[in-house]
Design goal:
Layout: H1 2-10, E1 15-18, H2 23-32, E2 37-40, H3 44-47, E3 59-60, H4 64-71, H5 78-90, E4 95-99, E5 105-109, E6 113-116, H6 129-143, H7 147-162, H8 174-181
Parallel strand pairs: 1-2, 2-3, 3-4
Antiparallel strand pairs: 4-5, 5-6
Length: 183
């Protein structure tokens, strides 16, 4: 059974994980899977689990507090966000999307960085916005999108998520995300 699960993981095109699973499981994934690992730190307490494996995480989606913790850079200004992203890049993360709440998202890679404001939306419930963002950036990566468009897809998905009282908006789809961006 375990061998079949490992084979499935080794054939994956991308692996999405968060720090709700044990540190040993996260380490196992990064050591045994060749697919890019996308990780959401979830909380400052749980983010500690990925500190030793940051160099094996392809895409990271922290919020401001999680980025502070993992980078060691206190974030008080927009320039601090860039310094935190630079530090995370130095630690081996390939790409990151730092959620800054009402101030949007800071996206960065080894090659570029950019700040995007949130898209307009009618906020009903923010539960599930981060998960929608993560799903969209993994999907966008598989579509071959660049950093900017990947961040925009994440923002679009999170706005769709927040416009529903339900944790998962029944209107969520790739078409809905594209329409939100008029793409």
């Amino acid at each position: 059974y375990l061998n079949s699960k490992l084979t499935l993981l080794q054939n994956a095109r991308v692996i999405v994980a968060d720090t709700n699973i044990p540190a040993e499981s996260l380490a196992f994934l990064t050591e045994n899977c060749t697919a890019p690992i996308f990780c959401d730190p979830v909380s400052t307490t749980k983010a500690e689990k990925i500190r030793p494996i940051l160099n094996r995480i392809h895409t990271l989606k922290p919020n401001r507090l999680e980025a502070e913790l993992l980078s060691g850079v206190k974030i008080e200004t927009m320039a601090d966000v860039a310094r935190a992203a630079d530090k995370l890049t130095e630690l081996g993360v390939h790409r990151m999307f730092i959620s800054m709440g009402a101030d949007g998202v800071y996206a960065a890679s080894h090659k570029e960085s950019l700040w995007l404001e949130n898209l307009p939306a009618n906020m009903v419930n923010t539960t599930g916005c981060g998960d929608a963002f993560m799903a969209a950036i993994a999907w966008a990566y598989l579509q071959g999108t660049d950093l900017r468009d990947t961040a925009l897809y994440g923002l679009a998905a999170s706005t769709i998520a927040m416009e529903s009282a339900d944790t998962i908006n029944a209107q969520m789809s790739a078409d809905a995300v594209r329409k939100r961006l008029d793409k």
